[in-house]
Amino acid sequence: MTPRDPGLQPERTALAWRRTFLAMIVSDSLIWRAWTTSLAYHGGHIAGSSVGLGIAAAAAAAATAVLGACILKRNASLRDQKAPRAAVLRTATAAIITVGAATIASILLGT
Predict the structure, then answer these.
(1) How far is CA 50 from CA 20, 55, 57, 59, 88, in A?
(2) CB atoms within 10 A of CB 19
(3) Where are the transmembrane segments (predicted)?
(4) Greater confidence, 39 or 107?
(5) Which residues contact 18 (CB under 8 A, 6 or more apart)?
């Protein structure tokens, strides 16, 4: 029996994970920019919106780091020719949702 040829699907999936990670990094940098702008606007004093933006920036950075770890774990699983565990995919989904929520919070707090 010959081994199954996966075709280009694994490569397309890897590219999608990279695009998602890049989009999260861009979102992180915009959240951090909003936070630093808020701090500069308030003259270095911690205002209510600055605290919220700081929390959003920290949550987004942590979630992006978690997604990066999920990508590394997924790639290691694929190198061993195993499917990634469901926990990796659930964790990645939670990280993406966290960055989305932090982005929405920064938009609301930055106005």
Answers:
(1) 27, 9, 10, 14, 33
(2) 10
(3) 53-72, 92-110
(4) 107
(5) 71
What is the rounded end-to-end Cα distance, in angstroms, of the chain?
Answer: 62
CB 64 within 8 A of CB 99: yes
Dihedral over alpha carbons 5, 8, 14, 18 (to 10 degrees): 170
What 3-state DSSP class applies to 43? coil
Tokens of 55: 């929390």
**Cβ contacts of 74 within 8 Å, gap of 6 or more:** 17, 84, 88, 92
Contact between residue 56 and residue 30 where contact means Cβ atoms under 8 Å apart? no
pLDDT digits (tens, 9 = 90+) for 21-77: 999 999 999 999 988 888 877 666 666 678 888 899 999 999 999 999 998 888 888
For the chain, which residues make up each domain, given as ranges?
A: 11-110
Q: What's at 43, amino acid-wise?
A: G
